[in-house]
Amino acid sequence: MIVLKDVTKSYGEVDAVDHVSIEVADGEIFGIVGYSGAGKSTLIKLIDRIEEADSGEIIIGKDDICKLEGKDLLEKRRKISMIFQNFDLLWSKDVLDNIAFPLMLKRVEKKKRRELAKELAKEVGLEDKIHAYPSELSGGQKQRVAIARALIVKPEILLCDEATSALDPKTTEDILDLLRKINKEYGLTILMISHQMEAIQKVCDRLAIMADGRVIEEGTVYEIFADPKEELTKRLIRTVDTGLDVKKTALELKERYPEGHLLRLTFDEVTSQRPILFELSNKTHIPMNIVSANIKNTAVGTLGVMYVHIEKRHDIALVLSELNADGVKVEVI
Amino acid sequence: MILEALYETLYLTFIPLIISCFLGLLIGTIIFITGSDIIVKSDKKYLKVISKVADALVNILRSIPYLILIIWLLPLTSFLTGKVIGTEAAIPALVFSATPFFARMVIIAFGEVDKGVIFASKAMGATIKDIIIHVLIPESLPALISSITVTAINLISYSAMAGAIGAGGLGYEAYQYGLVRRDTGLMFISTAMIVIIVFAIQILGDHLAHKVDRR
Q: Is B133 an interface residue toward A (CB < 8 Å)?
């Protein structure tokens, strides 16, 4: 478990991390999304204690990592592995030696560490590349090596610093699948930071949005997508290519249907299971025209957005109250 | 006679080269590590001071002309070798001029190692010693080999000047027999031998640097 309590870190005048409190449960994939400069990278460095927090507590397992020293700190840090945007492999070592590198630092005997590295190469799907050098690998393969290298120390926590940001969409998908697989297989707690909402929403159980060093919104992927509160969150969600591109769709529809009422309905895991619109039109006898609809499956549930057009002459007050009663989020555009 | 000069040149190149590379690597590493924000904690200000002072010393030594350096170092030379002239007597001055040069090359080579890789190694629990041995040196090996090559070639040309204190060597041979005694043939042979040695070192160095480069 990772618990951050009121963590603050500033560089001179700039508050890189400003009173951040987050809890990440064991075995959870937690995402932190924000634009660059939001303080995400600093936060991850504080968790691994590469940088020192100015104040606050960072509890990992049972201990506050900020208070550990010497051997205890080293032990704690060995339970935390990291992967990076640029993979950060040693070009002078082949795949096997790169994967085995952390064990070499722990003075594990060469034969033993290479054996373990071989197993992990297989785990990440690189068994036929073990003697290749990083320069002979693609970006996705390099990140697989980095993941294997992170796993070889049997960590409890994996920190991913923009791990998919340098990869193309297809490769990103593969790497995210791999992360999810190892999360399940090893019960690994994963903390991902990224500016790509796309990547985070696919794999994370919960997420937090960061801006100017602060966490401005936090919740399950579903909660955030279904009902974003902050302007920045809405903007980040819009970047996700889901067909749920709210602003663009709304504008286009408004152009096509300048007359009448245009409603945006957001369905969640529960409401998307029921024939709500059918029931509604039976009850109100108002004809409703579905002009755009989309359902998106995130890591934790289904999310649906539907645009409904109702002619001008109908009164929509009843429609709105019925939908609200059903638990569907309605916005009039 | 010319073979003796060849031997002297090789001696004056490779003995100081080995010593200078060892010392230069040591000094360059100290300057690089103490000056690096990634490797040492940035709150240790005194390390930065060490880095700056050592760096300045390297620059001072590098700016003293070789011939002047020989004279400055006469007392040290006589203390170390018991002589002030002759082949051995040239070695301290050669080391003193090649070491700061190589140290500078080491700093440049280390500076080109990917910062992310150093950072990642540190995150994986690498000690400073680990970073030097397993990251900095192997990751900058092609540049280090090239630096050794350039330093060796520099030493060849310095060793010609070491003739001023009777160190001998091909350069001195060319000067003595060619210019002073007007023996153009000997001057030509001596010069050609220097050129051949320089080429051989350069080709060998390039080959090795290329061979270890897996980027």
A: no
